[in-house]
Amino acid sequence: MTRRNLFLAALLLQVTVCTAMLSAQTATMPHPEKMSITTQMFLDEMAGNISFNEAADRQLDSNGLLAEPARMFAAPEMIGGKAYITSFVWVDAQEVIGQLKEAGVIVEEVFEKGLLTALIPVDKIHEIADIDGVSRIEVSSVMQLATDRAREKTRVNDVLGFTAAAAELNLPKAYDGSGVIVGVIDRGIDMDHIAFQDTAGNTRIKRAYVYNGSSIINYYGTGPLPNDKVTNTDHGTHTSSIAGGSSVVVDGDSVRVTMDHAKATYGGMAPGAELFLCGINGMAATRIANAFNRICSYADSVGKPVVVSNSYGDYVYNRDGSGAQGEVVSQLFGEGHPNRICVFATSNNAGHSGGRPGGVYVSGHASAEQPLGTVICSTDLALNAGWQYYRGEFIADAFTRATDATGIGVRLYVLNAETGAVVDSIVCESTGGNKVLTLSDYFTGNGGAANAKVSVYFDYMTGKGRKQALLYTQYGLKSQEHTLAVEVYPIGGSEDVIDMWSCGTYTFFDAHLTTEGHPWTVGSDDMSVMGNACYPEVISVGSYVSRTCEGSNDEGDISRFSCYALEGMGPLGTMHPWITAPGQDIISAFNHRVNRSSLEDVVVNHPNYLYGLMSGTSMATPMVAGIVALWMQAAAECGKKLTLDEVKTIMKETAIRDEWVTFGPNASHFGNGKIDALAGIAYILSEYGGHDYQQGDVNHDGSVNIADVTTLIDYLLDTQTEVCPDCADVNADGVINIADVTCLIDVLLSGN
């Protein structure tokens, strides 16, 4: 009998007495208001009404279906011969904790707002629920490991663990990003997190650049780690950990780093990479530009490849690569800079029409006589007020496409929200300067009708000579009877194409109203990416679903929010994203400094080392960056410096093109497909390998030297996961051990 079966047999004997009682009580379910779904399911399991099996033992039935579902909540634990179930318990007062202990509950951790983690005796669940001060019992659910799931989907697990699948593709060893710099620019980075430590507790952060809201801090690898003083977001910690976070094992209250990546609970894509983290409080473009420069300068100084992850962007830019930041990126990255790769998120502005017609982009030929016009709509995500609400933000951003226009014109209309008839209108042209339009007769703004205003801004000096008109409402607009429409046209020059984006979070364009003499254009999401992702020198990244959650598309499909651009759309006509990666409900490190009022998205509530769920192209982008680091390591060990075009080619040639990418309803949103880490390395070794590694060349740098001794010792000390067995077995005795270290040293001393 296996150890697991012995445990289950002992547990069955222990709970036999209480099973009949639980079965009888389950029918009436006392205190159902206190029992979570997981608790109800656990009680049903104890009563024999439902059953589960461990994933490793699951069998297929005759129809090819799994005979029993995987366990969705924790299994009982035997402590001192008694069965307990790990649970969350909410109490109304501190003194209730004493009553729980008297009833035999083992209280593990006491959190704020009456939340406890505890081990409850299986036969006393109802007794605990009877306590007046207990408001809820929630048997712990079993988390579907979203980061590990992403590693699986992208085949990073095969690369890190040197699996049979990796060996089948002739990989010589595992790859973890060693020798590659991963840069992340973000905000809210908890640099003290265990995700950025090695097995000895030392930081893996080699450099940091921080703006903390009042001063700039440069970290050079020694001394205390800097703090960007951002306490309202986990974003930067999450993205940094996805890209290059250490592999960690979560075991109850213990969180530790492991080099056995296959056994990690959570971990990043490139856990062996060197980290350069940039925490920018306020995310000013100037400081971001500084961060780019510092990252690239450091990579040059140590002669190592670098990949930079950027999970942010700006909607108020043309998608033509222009702008100050676009210029910085063009100077630091691209084909002229091999071994420097920059990735950007496409952003999450798709699908805001809530399933209704319309989208965030309109485009078309325009002139003063025939302008490009559309109705500005509001999504119910913002306020359940139909089409008549605009949040305080930018609501439309238009550009001329030709460079010979001398100006740009805007006609703003107030429409009857039901009939589409024009109620009022005003013309604003760049020749007349910026305008502030008061709409108090039709709308109310935050603070009253007097604040119902729309500002129209013009830019005469945009990149590449194009003209811009931007509509902004500071206090928002609300009306039960009226809605806005806009027409845009070029002034001077030849007939032009106008590109216009609804750059607000909750606005989009549509043609749902009929207005005589105004052929409104329906919007689409077919060019919804942010301007930064359109820089020609970067790789744009979209998100797909690796684990379904409430409100998401099916597993394998594109994320509903993931922005994209069809080929031929926009001023450059470039397809976006170039590649996709998992970005839905990803578990990664959280910032322990956040002033959080809820633990809703937290899955590991360690005092210092939290982990939690986030979704977005922000999560998919560092995933791609970390995988590129694995590729750059493999290329560097082949003596190859990868260029931007080569990395894009690897992505395109090796991408996973499953049924969602090829035939799914959103197939056009995936770009070239889903990134495949393992196939990418196999491609690199095939294209750029070109030589056989000799015995003793443990680190595969092309020569046998003292670095190979260090690598072999690290492997034996369990600080490096895998080595090539043929190269590391120096004495050819079929075993890798200390004798191989001695033999390798003898080889070096003899000069043979």
Can you describe what's shown?
This protein is about 25% helix and about 25% strand. Helix 1 crosses helix 2, helix 8 (about 235-245) runs parallel beside helix 11 and helix 9 (about 285-300) runs parallel beside helix 10 (about 325-330). With about 750 residues, the protein is α+β, with helices and mostly antiparallel strands. It folds into 4 domains: about 5-140, no CATH class; about 145-350 and about 580-645, Peptidase S8/S53 domain (Rossmann fold), CATH 3.40.50.200; about 360-525, Jelly Rolls; about 705-750, no CATH class. About 50% of the residues are buried. It is built from 17 helices and 31 strands. The radius of gyration is 29 Å and the shape is globular.
What is this structure's SSE topology?
Layout: H1 3-28, H2 37-46, E1 77-79, E2 82-91, H3 96-102, E3 106-110, E4 115-121, H4 125-129, E5 134-139, H5 146-154, H6 156-161, H7 164-168, E6 181-186, E7 205-211, E8 216-219, H8 235-244, E9 248-251, E10 254-257, E11 274-280, H9 285-302, E12 306-310, H10 324-332, E13 340-345, E14 361-366, E15 372-378, E16 389-390, E17 393-400, E18 407-416, E19 422-429, E20 435-438, E21 453-459, E22 468-473, E23 477-478, E24 482-491, E25 496-501, E26 507-510, E27 539-544, E28 579-582, E29 586-589, E30 602-605, E31 610-614, H11 617-636, H12 644-654, H13 659-662, H14 677-688, H15 706-716, H16 725-728, H17 738-750
Parallel strand pairs: 6-11, 6-12, 7-11, 12-13, 13-27, 27-28
Antiparallel strand pairs: 1-2, 2-4, 2-5, 3-4, 7-8, 9-10, 14-25, 15-24, 15-26, 16-23, 17-22, 17-25, 18-19, 18-24, 20-21, 21-22, 29-31, 30-31
